Amino acid sequence: MLKYSKFLGLVVFVFLFAMCNQKSKNESNKETILKGTLDVTVDETVKPIVDDQVAVFEGTYYSAKITVKPKSEAELINDLLNQKAKVVVTTRDLTKEEISRFEKSKIKPRVTPFAKDAIALISSKSNNDTLITLKSVIDFMQGKANTGIRGLVFDNPNSSTVRYMKELAKVQNVPTENVFSFKTNDEVIKFVSENEGMIGVVGVNWLSQPSPNMIDVVKKINVLSVKGLNSDKYYSPTQNDLAEVKYPLARDLFIINCQGYNGLGMGFGSFIAGDIGQRIVLKSGLLPVRTPGRKLQIRNKLLKDNE
């Protein structure tokens, strides 16, 4: 009887130990705002800035692992609405209809604006003209002749740049002639650099932060200055012209979190919108939503070399 009691006690001890160990393991694997794994689906036209944010975030919080998944805007929104993606970075806010779909599922999306981006129009260096009017681009999108544009080059038929330009021109479809589409912004830049007279439509982030294999290619293109519909001057997609609301092809960037709980998506979103994230945006060439502060040390006199 004593042996049986000892055996039963040993079984109970092993069971309790295993349960405690499993509980400890589950707690260590539990996702928090600064720990765990997360997939972030990103509009491919703004992938470079998100890559920068992820690199610094993971370098700061070692227990966080974020995987960036670039997709076209149409694919991204479709995945979000079908709950295949929980956290996304987009170049537009959700529509009322899209928000209504989430409300029916009792999900309240967290939408956080974090930067102002620009759509850049580019041409080959062989084209000496670095100016273009927005009206000529709209006329081309509307199928009008004699616009002076040989052809427009987009990254993807389902991309945010195509959607943006169609809305601007108030057309349902792009012209069937002299419009070219590729899969990536890098392919657009390369094609334009090799074909005189073509106008490329890309996210400016791909030009301000080109990948190592694209640095020499970017040097072969011009970033065009654009005259808006109600302007008599030409402006470039620079931080200054974006800040002064002068560049006519500006757009906002958002991180949308539909996790529905306090997970890594919330932590990453807060990071991007916070001081460090906004400094990364500023360094990238885009315009942060909030300009990071600077500390200035003011002296009454200059220090000597030996002081």
- The sequence of SSEs as H and E is HEHEHEHEEHEHEHEHHEEEHEHHE
Helix content: 25-40%
Shape: globular
Q: What's the story with the biggest beta sheet?
A: 10 strands, mixed
Derived from helix and strand composition plus strand pairing, the structural class reads alpha/beta
Domain PBP: 35-274
Protein name: Substrate-binding domain-containing protein
Keywords: Signal
InterPro entries: PBP_domain, Phosphate_ABC_transporter
Can you describe what's shown?
By secondary structure, the protein is of the alpha/beta class. It is about 40% helix and about 20% strand. The protein has twelve helices and 13 strands. Strands 1, 2, 3, 4, 6, 7, 8, 9, 12 and 13 form a ten-stranded mixed β-sheet that branches. A three-stranded mixed β-sheet has the order 5-10-11. A hairpin with a 6-residue loop joins β10 and β11. The longest helix is centred in the first third of the chain and has 28 residues, at about 1-30. It is globular and about 60 Å long. Mean pLDDT is about 85; it is low at about 5-30.
Keywords, separated by commas or semicolons:
single chain; 307 residues; alpha/beta; 10-stranded mixed sheet; 3-stranded mixed sheet; 13 strands; 39% helix; PBP_domain; Substrate-binding domain-containing protein; signal; Phosphate_ABC_transporter
